[in-house]
Amino acid sequence: MMLTCPLCAGTDTRHFHRDRWRDYYRCECCRLVFVPPHQRLAPAAEKAVYDQHENRPDDPGYRRFLARLYTPLRARLTPGARGLDFGAGPGPTLSVMFEEAGHPMAIYDSFYAPDDRVLASEYDFITATEVVEHLFAPGRELEALAGLLRPGGWLGLMTKRVSTPEAFARWHYILDPTHVCFFSEASFEWLADHLGMDLLLPAPDVALLQRRGG
């Protein structure tokens, strides 16, 4: 089956893996691994999974988890930089952490905070933690987010990265039925080049992309 890559829109895609529930294809251009559209969950079933999440701002373990993105990004921000937490989920927490550090924040989530007005503003930084693996059209959505950044602004992404086919076959990350896109280091390199941004990979599951011109 020849499928179009949801990141780069390339058509050179090859079957990569199959488990008991789904197939996975890899794009030979940007190296994204993705689930074919007909095997994605319907919106109601997808939201039912998210409704089970119990992430809260008062959970120190969850804060430590988010600190993997928060710490390297916070170190690169100017005082008072304004941010957007995209895909904040049912218990927004990263936005609270940045607000505590003096950064005004907006939040957006297609299920829990679907206020499209915040997508018409400009920001100094945008975060998406454990979000991109859920996106059906990551190329289009990440390009739109990058377009909201002021010159010099940062796009901070947190998602686990694909390594080898052998590791992928054993990977717990693919067991979540809402995970449909899996980025590799090469995927982020393609994205940065496509968007004309500079890329930093400060941790195995963190990517920081900076808009040029700041």
Protein described:
The chain is an alpha/beta fold. It has a single domain, classed as 3-Layer(aba) Sandwich (Rossmann fold), CATH 3.40.50. 26% of the residues lie in helices and 25% in strands. It has helices at residues 43-50, 60-74, 94-100, 138-146, 165-169, 185-195; strands at residues 13-18, 23-27, 33-34, 83-86, 105-108, 123-129, 149-158, 181-182, 197-203, 206-211. A 6-stranded mixed beta sheet has the order 5-4-6-7-10-9, sandwiched between helices. The protein has a 4-stranded antiparallel beta sheet with strand order 1-2-3-8. The longest helix is centred in the first third of the chain and has 15 residues, at 60-74. It starts with 12 loop residues before the first strand and ends with a strand. The mean pLDDT is 96. InterPro entries: SAM-dependent_MTases_sf. This is Class I SAM-dependent methyltransferase.
